[in-house]
Design brief:
single chain, about 375 residues, alpha/beta, 2 domains, seven-stranded mixed sheet, about 20% strand
Length: about 375
Amino acid sequence: MPDRQWVLLNPGPGNTTRTVREALVTPDLCHREPEFFHVMRECRAMLARLAGGGDAFTAVCFTGSGTAAVEAALCSVVPRDRAVLIVDNGVYGRRMVQIAAAHGIAHEVIPYDITTPVRPEDVAARLSGRPDISHVAIVHHETTTGLLNPVAGVAKAAARHGRRVIVDATSSLFGEPLDITQDGIDFVTANSTKCVQGMPGVGFVLARRTAVEALKGTPPRSVYLDLYTHYALEEQDNIPFTPAIQVFSALRQALLELEQEGVDARVKRYAENARVLREGMGRLGFTILVPEGCRSSILTTFRLLPGLTYDALHGAMKRRGYIIYAGQGDIRTYAFRVANLGILTPRDMEGVVAAFADTLRELAPPRK
């Protein structure tokens, strides 16, 4: 591992290239000078272009995590006299519920268990006869378990009812196929790490221009996270607050490397990573929590083997240079997560499986 100390198997931040890390080392710079705005402008243009948004979409950047972008979209977009329908089948769906409640946004929740994807027909049924609901909010990839929600079907159902969709694609953008231009989708949120393969610190909203421009004049619910304020200033090569200057430089480098690899190629690499991992772990006796057919190619939740605890497994893998990830909440007691994003390759995943095999030999109870 000449280019990294740990192999990160958590769902972001992931392992990055040396060139992305080196891009953080920039001369001291005032954030209101044209040199910074040139970097930000390039990042915004590349984000919209690489996501397939074309001229119809723009990127609005915030200094913050992916949750900052999600909160900016929710608190800025839903009108004060309307409501949002939130899909909840994991921690990040519930986080959107928390955001709506914190801002006093009327909301309805459509709940599922953590291994069941939303059914578009259920969304359509909830929207029928509910003109007060203006938006549907959905997590594309629930990193709670590695569940992939059918965003395309939900967007189609919403569009048929004249509603618009907010997609949290924090952990899936550039790692799973996603047509952001599909009718119904107005806002897609993500951040500078995860499948972008940059450094944490910049959240962004890919916004349909007509939708974000329609927010002009709307009284803001937030000072720091008002989407239209950031959009209007960034369009003028300006910014309302001090940004993470160095992280933007690393983001630009990461996007240049994404463009060089190709979005389709990155999606295929992640899918092959997942295949190698899952087949290898299956040979070791591990089973997958999420049913086949709705699994992402980014993260897998494996059930713990009998007699094996997460803490013991994590410690043994870390000694071998690999960082695995606990399940959230009660999941920790019976399962754990392994992500395969960042610069990891199928050959790296073979190393991961070999490390798990070695770990199981270490942790096996002594024979009597």
